[in-house]
Specification:
461 residues; alpha/beta; 20 helices; single chain; 43% helix; 14% strand; five-stranded parallel beta sheet
Amino acid sequence: MSQKPILIVDDVDTHLTLFTATLEAAGHTVLPARSQAEALALIDITLPGIALVDLVLPDGDGIALIKLLKDRDPTIKLIAITAFASVDHAVSAMRNGAENFLVKPIEPDQLKATIANTLAGRSIGQYVQPYPVDDVEAEGHVGSSNLMQDIYSTIRAVAGSAASVFITGENGTGKVKAAAAIHNQSGFQDGAFVKLDCSTAAPDTIEAELLGQIGTREIPEKIGAAELAHGGTLLLDEICTLSLPMQARLLNMLQSGMITPIGATAGRPAEFRLICTSTVDPRAEVQSGRFRADLFYRLNVVPIHLPPLRARGLDVVEIAETELDRLCAREGREFRTLSTEVKAIFLDHAWPGNIRELMNVLWNVIVLHDGPVVNVTDLPPYLRGAQRSQKPSHLGGTSQVPENPFAGKTLAEIERNAVEAAISHAGGSIPTAARSLGVSPSTLYRKLEGWGRPVRGGRKF
């Protein structure tokens, strides 16, 4: 347990009470404060070892308080907390000294695990799990964002069926890994997982690659991917690159349940789980006439869209530190965490190569440097240049040029963030939040229901 007390700064009484009770039950000494003024009065008496600071306080800016606490005691561990996920807030908080970032609602186990990891010198993505690792996470998928949790739920649900799955997303988002996770949790897991990359196979050999070919004196026999996948899973990677004639042959195979290799006079039974991926939008391909509509609707039973890394918020830090642990264990390196400056750079970067680019960056760091902390100087040059210069900030305000809070967000995301922030400021009261937004409570209830968020009950903070 912490030898120093834990300071919690949050102006919502229910949150402060529950945070305090959770940590005191775990054996920690807690200093609760409802404002910056109360927090400053407490640290004049006792210096805390850890401080959890809400970024929206009634008498000032939580980020400025974080900086002040760090200036007073460079050894203090700082955790920023807020009512909704905002990469801009995370970047500012981390640049000013925060090591972790928690988004409300916060589960008690998550709060205790974060404190335990902070005390142990670990950070986001290195949580001591209070429960067994999720099957999907065990397959290499990491990310606590609501967006990814919904995708993991879909993967778990579809894995137990034989339905076709169509996975879309930009290059490097993990489409093949998601397909492997579905296979490994399905009833087809004892069979083979066969991948055929439709984009790299030569047009004059793709039919033989998929269906197989009867041997002759001139041509050796070839077993096709569909036959190899019998009893298992067939992954057709980048399926939208198939020619229209090949699409017709694939559709015929799926409708008949039979594989007819080139040169064969009779078909062979085929039973496998089919998963397809595409970097391009398959619906746009259908509309342009480049992809058969009847084949698309046959394949698109369960669609899964993997978002780009830049849309996943704080997941980028969680992924980076999880993979850092894995790479260090394999290569015998001593890195344990990322510096706050590196986290800010990772959150700022657009990651055009997505997870694949992030993995290459980490590999570069591991090969050329050693730990225990990944610093800005360890990064490849193109990322080192992304570090922004910051002007000093003060408790009463900040001289930093304000960033556009809406940058990179859709209108729907902006609306949801505004609604959730209003509800948080209202202490969870829907009617009060509705009045502040100038809408009726029924409007907010409908929106919350549409987002799948419970509006009554529950134990989350």
